[in-house]
Amino acid sequence: MKHRQFKRILSVCLALCLVFAAMPLKAYATAAQKQSELDKKNQEIKDTQSEVNQKANEQSQLASQISSIEKQIYSKTVELNNLNKSINQTKEEITQVLLEIEEKEKEIAVQNSALNERLRAMYENGSVGLLTVLFGSASMSAFLTNMEMAQRIHESDANMLASMREQYAQLDETKERLQTLKENLLTQQANATAKKAELEAQKVDLDEKKSQVSADLKELEASLKAMKTEADALSAQIRALQGDTSYSGGTMLWPSAASKYISSPFGNRILFGVKEFHTGIDIAAALGTNILAANSGTVIKAGYNNSYGYMVMIDHGGGIVTLYAHSSKLLVKTGDVVGRGQVIALVGSTGRSTGPHLHFEVRVNGEYKNPLNYVSR
Ligand SMILES: [Zn+2]
Q1: CB burial class (10 A; 0-12, 13-18, 19+) of residue 65?
Q2: 228 CA from centroid of ligand 1 (Å)
Q3: How far is the CA of 317 from the centre of ligand 1 (A)?
Q4: Cα 41 from Cα 47, distance rounded (Å)
Q5: Cβ pair 203, 76 in contact under 8 A
Q6: Which of 23, 209, 269, 311 gives 325 a disulfide partner, CB atoms 3.0 to 4.6 angstroms apart?
């Protein structure tokens, strides 16, 4: 029985030993898992940010469309006010002309009856008619004088009447012209009113769209903020997990056995015409040449990534992580403990790469650092 008991105690001890031995590895695995969560979160943030930019762009386009419509509505309003003024003025002018016409009609009637009166008086002068006046003249000279007088009276009255009739005709013409003008103005007013209503409907439509876009934008910005908070929390968790160990490696080793040539430095650069932040340095090296671990540490990730291609991440403790990307072949796996200068992968051009090179990154507590401050070249 004693033997059995000893076996039980031993198995418990072994289990405990395994648990303790597994802990650092578990911490690395958790850190790696958190790191991939963080990478995913960062991608989400990037996508959401571009959506936000797109919405903001849409919003400002709508705002400028609305302001252009508002200007058009304003100018239509001014046009309508002017038309209303012209219409009122024309109406007043028409009223005025109608009054003048009425006046003229009366004058003509008066003049007409005056002329008729005079003619009648001439006929009836001395109870004889005009012909009698004329033919009853004492002499030829008297006849001519009477004739001339009668003609003069008649002509002068007739001329006055003719002139009045001409004035009347002119007034009538003016009235016609004003009425045509009024009709034209009313047509213009109807057109301007219709156009203004159309513009106002467009504005309502655009206002609606803009408030929808603004609401979307607000929502996106809120979720972006939430994502950033989550990313910060993940970074803090990663730092806490990596903080279990401390860095004691000193200056790191140059990671390429074949080349010391930097084809693209760390920091802001322009790639394919787009400004971007280069998170590491590119070391141009021949395909298949050795990639070396810059220092001893634990592989926290060895696998494929769309951007980095085949890549290795090594945790060196103290929150320092190095990354080796675009490899053609990986020679280590997640959880491996590697020594300084160990060949961990071969140079390639996998992932987002235009030719064989080693993309080398140094991250301190999750932040990208210029590798040249950490390695001796
Ligand atoms: Zn690079």
Answers
A1: middle
A2: 25
A3: 24
A4: 10
A5: no
A6: 311
Distance of CA 282 from the midpoint of ligand 1 (Å): 5
Report the distance separating Cα 144 and Cα 239, nearest Å.
Answer: 137
Taking the C-alpha atoms of residue 280 and residue 282, their distance in angstroms, rounded to an integer, is 7
Amino acid at 90: T
63-217 carries CATH number 3.40.250.10:
no
Return the CA Rg of the chain.
Answer: 52
Dihedral, CA of residue 199, residue 200, residue 205 and residue 209, to nearest 10: 100
Taking only the tens place, the pLDDT of each residue in 245-302 is 567 667 899 999 899 999 999 998 876 677 788 999 999 999 999 999 999 999 999 9
- For residue 272, the CA-to-ligand 1 centroid distance in Å is 13
Tens-place pLDDT, residues 280-291: 999 999 999 999
Q: How far is the CA of 264 from the centre of ligand 1 (A)?
A: 7
Find out if CATH 2.70.70.10 is the number for domain 246-377.
Answer: yes
What's 139's DSSP letter? S
Find the 39 Cα to ligand 1 centroid distance in Å.
17
Give the integer Cα–Cα distance in Å for 38 and 236. Answer: 11
**Residue 285, both tokens:** 């090296």
Locate all alpha helices (DSSP H) within the chain, ordered by sequence: 2-124, 130-135, 140-242
Cα 347 to ligand 1 centroid, rounded to whole Å? 13
Break the chain into its structural domains and give their ranges. 63-217, 246-377
Q: What is the pTM of this model?
A: 0.49
Q: Ligand 1 centroid vs 27 CA: distance in angstroms? A: 28
Going by C-alpha positions, the residue among 240, 300, 282 that lies closest to residue 25 is 300
**Cα separation, 92 vs 96, whole angstroms:** 6
Amino acid at position 225, single letter = K
Q: Taking a C-beta distance cutoff of 8 angstroms, is the pair 343, 290 a contact?
A: yes
Contact, 232 vs 37, CB < 8 A? no
Name, in order, each residue with C-beta under 8 angstroms of 260's C-beta and a sequence gap of 6 or more.
254, 283, 377
